[in-house]
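Researcher: Let's do a round of design. I'm pasting the C-alpha cells now; please hold your answer until I've finished.
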C-alpha cells in the first residue's frame, strides 16, 4: 500500500485504475474515463472516486447522482460547483462495484453532456483543450493552466491567515472540560456492569466516544488538538473507570448487607466509608488483586482503542476539519 501525506492508495486500487488507463499521481490514482477527469484513493474504511463534471448541464444532477448509491454501496455523494465525490463503503467486493460504477454510470453521465463544457474554478471562464486538473480539498476541478499558480498563491495566502488566526478564547479549555465530563459519563456503564458481574472492559469504547462527544458539545476546536485531548482523557478515564468499578462493587457489597451476612454480623455493623478506606489499602498492597486489576485495565484499554479508532475514522471523514484550502495539481 502506498501512503501519502493526505491520501493513500492500495495496490488493488492501482490495478483497477490501470484497467482504465489511470496512473499514480500526487498520492492518488488519476486519469480520465469517458472524458471525465478522475482521482481515486483509499480512506479509513472507505474508497473514494472524485470526478470533475459539469453539473450545470443536468437539471436533476443530485437526483441522478444519488440513484446508484444503494446499487454500489456508496456511503456518501458530495457535490460541488463542478465536481462530485463518491465515497464507497470499503468491504468485500468494493473494487468490483467501483469497476461496475466506472463502466456503467460514467457513460450514462457522459451521454448527458456532463463531461464537457467545464468552467475554470479560478476565473469561471470556459476551459477547452489542455485543461489543468486540480484537487481542491478532495474535489477534482478543472482550470486553465495559467490560473493554477495564482490559485495556489491565494490558497497559500489563506493558509497563512489561518495559521496566524488566534484560537477562540476559552475554546480549548471548554473542549477539555467537555471531554472530561463526557469521558467520566462513559465510566458509569463500566461501574454498573462491574457491580452486576458482567464484563465491563468493553465500556472503554464508550469512554472514548463520550470524551469525543463532550469535546464537540463544549465547542472544542476540531483537528489534531481534539484527537490528542480525547486520547489523553480516555487513557486517564479508563484507569478511573477500573478503580471506580472495584470500589463501587465493594461498596455495593456493604450497602446491600452481603458483607454483614457473610461475616455473621448484625445488619449495619460495617460502616461504608471506613470499610472502603481499608479496602483500598488492602487492594493496593495485595499482589493478586493488582494482577487482576491490571488484567482488567489492559482489556479496558483494548476496547478504548477501538473507540479511539472510531473517533479517528470520524475525523478523517470530516470535511476539511482544519479549514485550510489544500491544492494538488494531478496532470502536471
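Researcher: That's everything. Go ahead.
Model: Designed sequence:
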Amino acid at each position: 500500500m502506498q501512503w501519502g501525506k493526505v491520501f493513500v492508495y492500495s495496490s488493488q486500487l492501482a490495478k483497477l485504475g490501470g484497467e482504465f488507463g489511470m496512473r499514480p499521481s500526487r498520492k492518488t490514482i488519476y486519469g480520465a474515463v469517458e472524458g471525465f477527469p478522475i482521482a481515486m484513493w483509499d480512506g479509513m474504511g472507505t474508497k473514494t472516486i472524485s470526478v470533475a463534471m459539469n453539473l450545470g448541464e443536468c437539471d436533476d444532477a443530485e437526483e441522478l447522482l444519488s440513484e446508484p448509491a444503494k446499487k454500489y454501496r456508496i456511503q456518501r455523494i458530495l457535490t460541488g460547483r463542478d465536481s462530485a465525490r463518491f465515497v464507497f463503503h470499503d468491504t468485500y467486493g468494493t473494487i468490483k462495484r467501483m469497476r461496475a460504477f466506472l463502466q456503467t454510470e460514467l457513460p450514462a453521465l457522459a451521454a448527458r453532456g456532463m463531461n464537457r463544457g467545464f468552467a475554470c474554478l479560478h476565473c469561471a471562464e470556459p476551459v477547452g483543450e489542455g485543461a489543468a486538473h486540480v484537487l481542491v480539498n478532495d474535489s477534482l476541478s478543472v482550470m486553465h493552466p495559467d490560473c493554477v499558480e495564482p490559485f495556489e498563491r491565494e490558497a497559500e495566502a489563506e493558509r497563512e491567515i489561518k495559521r496566524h488566526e488566534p484560537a477562540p478564547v476559552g475554546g480549548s479549555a471548554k473542549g477539555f472540560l467537555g471531554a472530561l465530563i463526557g469521558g467520566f459519563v462513559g465510566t458509569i456503564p463500566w461501574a454498573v456492569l462491574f457491580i452486576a458481574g458482567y464484563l465491563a472492559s468493553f465500556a472503554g469504547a464508550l469512554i472514548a466516544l463520550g470524551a469525543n462527544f463532550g469535546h464537540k458539545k463544549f465547542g472544542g476546536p476540531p483537528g489534531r488538538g481534539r484527537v490528542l485531548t480525547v486520547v489523553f482523557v480516555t487513557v486517564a478515564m479508563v484507569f478511573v473507570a477500573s478503580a471506580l468499578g472495584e470500589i463501587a462493587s465493594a461498596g455495593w457489597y456493604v450497602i446491600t448487607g452481603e458483607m454483614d451476612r457473610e461475616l455473621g454480623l448484625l445488619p449495619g455493623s460495617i460502616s461504608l466509608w471506613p470499610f472502603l478506606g481499608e479496602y483500598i489499602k488492602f487492594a493496593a498492597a495485595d499482589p493478586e488483586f493488582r494482577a487482576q486489576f491490571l488484567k482488567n485495565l489492559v482489556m479496558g484499554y483494548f476496547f478504548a482503542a477501538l473507540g479511539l479508532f472510531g473517533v479517528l475514522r470520524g475525523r478523517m471523514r470530516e470535511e476539511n476539519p482544519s479549514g485550510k484550502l489544500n491544492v494538488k495539481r494531478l496532470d502536471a
